[in-house]
Amino acid sequence: MRDEFERIFGAAPTGVWAAPGRVNLIGEHTDYNDGFVLPIALPQAVKVAARVRTDGRLRLYSAQGDDVVTDLSVAELAPGAVTTWAGYPAGVVWALREQGHQVGGADLYFDSDVPSGAGLSSSAALECAVAAVYRDLYELELTAAESALLAQQAENRFAGVPCGVMDQMASACCVEGSALFLDTRDLTQRQVPFPLDAQGLTLLVIDTRVKHDLGDGAYAALRAGCERAAALLGLPALRDLPAAALPDAIAELPAELGPLVRHVVTENGRVGQAVELLERGEYAALGPILTAGHASLRDDFKVSCPEADLAVSAAVAAGALGARMTGGGFGGSVIALTPKESAWPVEQAVTAAFLAAGYAAPNVFAVTAAAGARRLA
């Protein structure tokens, strides 16, 4: 990173930072409904070598890009002005200035092994890495949660993606070896031990290679539907609907909104069940909760795809304890909880099923719960 930074920018960086991607164990499309989520950070991360500039220029280079340095004026940053990948890091600098932080330019060199478009929050990793860089370079008084909120504002208001806060909180606040139990209303968080290896279990990520784009309008439409349902029910958010009141609520809503409400309420319940199981050390029992969550996303929220459905069914048939799509949907990745001895047979079975269906072979890899955004050197 240091050598490549110097090759591109002509001088040594001040340091190197990293922020991870994430998978969400359970709690999908609940964050923008003030609900509960349970993500882990991935070992895969966005790394940034950086140094301050004093001329007000923000220069960005990606090792995964087209060998071009994006050169921007910090003073002229505005929503919609940067439409490439550079909009995510530039949006963080814009959000910092919007909140009154006296920050200027920087040279930033990015390298990432978080698969893009795979539903693993590569954009949140970009944003949280830049927030960590600027916090340290400009000596800002920012907590991890405050950095995550800034990153979310960058994605919402600068990049135009109306995401909740879960992805950024996972990338900024996760702890190695634990899952993050997060109340997205008040940002109360608890680290829940997730030592799968010691339990003889493996968590596989199955990247279906179906690229998704949460900025294409479908995600925004789902969020708008949830907010409309809450308003019709006279609630601040769907999080406030008790499970016992769900049948009556669905009966009084327009037909297209009932399934959205059912998913959010039952998914919040699944998060609570998952946390109780993990805290009791019953890690294998998480499997059926994952599979039930996938069925809800597939049938009620309708954000799955044939490749994800096939990955779930093939994984469970081959010995996985449970599986589900993770992330916003419309493509992306599936997670499968398996006994260690079943991990390779599950990978083989899913790959064979994809090839038999005429799909490209998926990218399958095991993950552990990693640490959030941090300085590396």
Decide which structural class fits the backbone: alpha+beta
Number of helices: 11
Q: Give the mean pLDDT.
A: 96
Q: What pattern of helices and strands is seen along the backbone? A: HEEEEHEHHHEEEHHHHHEEHEE
Distance between the first and last residues' Cα? 10 Å
Describe the structure.
- The chain is of the alpha+beta class.
- It has two domains: 192 residues, 2-Layer Sandwich (Ribosomal Protein S5, domain 2), CATH 3.30.230; 171 residues, Alpha-Beta Plaits.
- The protein has eleven helices and twelve strands.
- The strands form two sheets. Strands 1, 2, 3, 4, 5, 6, 7 and 12 form an eight-stranded mixed β-sheet that branches. A four-stranded antiparallel β-sheet has the order 9-10-8-11.
- Strand 9 and strand 10 form a beta hairpin.
- The chain is globular, with a radius of gyration of 21 Å.
- 53% of the residues are buried.
- The mean pLDDT is 96.
- One of its GO terms (biological process) is galactose metabolic process.
- GO terms for molecular function: ATP binding; galactokinase activity; metal ion binding.
- Keywords: ATP-binding, Carbohydrate metabolism, Cytoplasm, Galactose metabolism, Kinase, Magnesium, Metal-binding, Nucleotide-binding, Transferase.
